[in-house]
Write a structure and sequence with these properties.
Keywords: Membrane, Transmembrane, Transmembrane helix. By secondary structure, this protein is mostly helical. It folds into two domains: 189 residues, Growth Hormone, Chain: A; 208 residues, MFS general substrate transporter like domains (Growth Hormone, Chain: A, Up-down Bundle). The protein is built from 18 helices and no strands. The longest helix is centred in the middle third of the chain and has 30 residues. The N terminus is likely disordered.
């Protein structure tokens, strides 16, 4: 009887009776793995701009303000594309959107090898890469999680969020070594290849919906694949128009804009050239920035745990205040060598880097209920707009003052303002239903 049972085919996973003790993992985990690799490969470009500011300035004579403006276009488009990315995936499917996004990132990085004018830098780095990276990242991670998982959503969201930090950890030291030893063009080609290598995996292994392969989402019941949604983009704009009529939106958007200004716009873009101005080798500075990527994963997980237990407004105020103090001390820590106070700063700042995300998302959920995901998308857009402003202003400040010190001090003051803004966000939920009419 045992032999007969073992040999019988088991085509129905819900059939009663003995089952095999070893089963293949659910297809959702393969989809999540592809998404992780995709976000990691797409994040390769984010490692590049800070490494190439000085080489491009030396090679073409472009001002740092011009170069910073190209980076600011990329960051702004990244943020402004993100609220619509999920709508694009609902309309055309994840595979098509992600393949197109990776192709744009690769094209922008590869075409920059032959650029000779600053407008080309703005077109390749700003437009193409900005649209490409903005069509992935958090929108892609949220779509994969929502479609393929019912259980373990928190775990998968955290892992996919960490993919960006993983890309920074992998590509920053590698690209820095390439720039130091072979020049900026091979580094740009490396980024293009990293994006292109992922494309076949996305096309062959990624599926838009569990129903495409006859499966239920992990931990859930089978649901038919919904028809393409044509009104998602309109709703995205409608919710924005309603949210801008409320005070909490402007406080959340303002604090998150300062968050972007003091992280992506400032630290990711100008830490390496600022340290290099003080005599630190590019490779060493890039390695320090990569270490921040390790600790921001730890800090984000810890912040999520704290957000479940403490008031989100107070947490945000503490995070911004501590970040502001650390940035005020950073100019005094710059030196040719890596010393213990700088390592302490890297660890401390890394823990705080994206710790603001869980409480900000919690406040959006508390204030705006079922519209909170869309509102958070627009708050995230403000994050990137803040980053874009500082990416441009930092380059101009370096051209005018001869150092980045004034930018670090200004960012510290902005963080103090964000701490105060966090404390005055009201607790009463904001119904958007009446405002969307």
């Amino acid at each position: 009887m045992t032999q007969t049972t073992d040999a019988a085919p088991q085509t129905n996973p819900r059939a009663t009776g003995p089952r095999r003790t070893r089963r293949m993992p659910h297809r959702a985990w393969f989809v999540a793995a592809v998404a992780f690799v995709t976000i990691t490969g797409g994040a390769a470009f984010n490692s590049l701009p800070g490494l190439l500011i000085d080489p491009l300035h030396d090679r073409f004579g472009w001002s740092r303000g011009e170069i910073g403006f190209a980076v600011s276009i990329d960051m702004a488009l990244y943020g402004l594309t993100a609220p619509f990315a999920a709508a694009l995936m609902d309309r055309f499917g994840m595979r098509k959107v992600v393949v197109a996004a990776l192709s744009m990132v690769a094209a922008g990085a590869l075409l920059s090898v032959w650029m000779t004018a600053s407008w080309q830098l703005m077109l390749y780095w700003g437009l193409l890469v900005g649209l490409g990276t903005g069509s992935m990242a958090m929108a892609f991670a949220a779509t994969v999680t929502n479609r393929w998982f019912v259980e373990r959503r928190g775990l998968v969201t955290g892992v996919l969020t960490a993919a960006g930090a993983s890309g920074q950890l992998i590509f920053l030291p590698l690209c820095a070594w390439i720039v130091d030893n072979h020049g900026w063009r091979p580094a740009s080609v490396t980024v293009a290849l990293a994006a292109l290598v992922v494309v076949p995996f996305v096309w062959l292994l990624l599926r838009d919906h569990p129903a495409d392969v006859g499966l239920a989402p992990y931990g859930g019941e089978f649901v038919p694949k919904p028809a393409p949604r044509r009104g998602a983009a309109k709703r995205t704009v409608t919710v924005l128009l309603a949210a801008v009529k409320t005070g909490p939106f402007w406080l959340l958007a303002g604090t998150f804009a300062i968050c972007g200004a003091s992280t992506n716009g400032l630290m990711r873009t100008y830490f390496v050239p600022s340290a290099h101005d003080h005599g630190m080798p590019i490779t060493a500075a890039a390695s320090l920035l990569a270490v921040i990527g390790v600790f921001d994963v730890i800090g984000t997980i810890a912040s999520g745990w704290l957000t479940d237990r403490f008031e989100a407004r107070r947490l945000l105020a503490v995070y911004y205040a501590l970040r502001g103090v650390s940035l005020l001390f950073l100019p005094m820590l710059m030196a040719p060598d890596v010393h213990p106070p700088m390592i302490f700063f890297i660890v401390f700042y890394g823990l705080d880097w994206v710790a603001t995300v869980p409480p900000t998302l919690a406040l959006c959920r508390e204030q705006y209920g079922e519209d909170s995901a869309i509102v958070f998308g627009w708050v995230l857009a403000s994050h990137q707009v803040g980053a874009a402003v500082v990416a441009f202003a930092g380059g101009v400040a370096r051209d005018v003052f001869g150092s980045y010190d004034v930018v670090w001090y200004a960012a510290g003051a902005l963080c103090a303002a964000a701490a105060l803004m966090s404390l005055v966000i009201r607790r009463k939920p904001v119904p958007l239903a009446g405002l969307t009419r």
